[in-house]
Write a structure and sequence with these properties.
CATH superfamily: NusG, N-terminal domain
CATH class: Alpha Beta
Mean pLDDT: 93
Helix content: 10-25%
CATH topology: Alpha-Beta Plaits
CATH architecture: 2-Layer Sandwich
Order of helices and strands: EHEEEEHEEEHEEEEEE
Shape: elongated
Distance between the termini: 54 Å
Number of domains: 1
Largest sheet: 5 strands, mixed
Amino acid sequence: MWYVIWTEARSEYQLKSRIEKDIDNSLYSSCWVPTKTEQRKLDGKYTEVEKILFPGYIFIDTEDPEKLHIEIRKTKYNSRVMKTGDDFTPISRTEEEIIRHLTGDDGRMGISTGIIEDGNLKVIDGPLKGFEKYIVRIDRHKRKAWLKIKLFGEERKFNAGLCVIEKTMKVN
């Protein structure tokens, strides 16, 4: 089952490396930091950059979250497997499906392509296809969309790469 490890922002990759190096791999089957690709305008040209999708969070697939938590607490990082009350809480199947859809098997969310027809966004390609109902804001110039989805037990707002290639308006 998938669990979330909370850690301090900007130490995600260091903790992931420490887990892979110091913790017995029989305690988990995979450990990853979900990322997203964004486009940034530098010197008049758009360049793709990779950023962490959920800063401060690492995902891990384990069947023994309690033992894993004990091992993680031994690292020098201020981190822990997330709990609800006294119980370690796995990601729900719905949340897992959403994250899998957005990031694919490699844990990386690419850039989506969309069009705006009569004021309505339609994503025609990429991980945001079918997720239009979760998009609460777009910025065509920064090529980003902000989504609001219930993840990790609460509403989360995060952004993703979205390139709007066409905007059409109905003429009466």
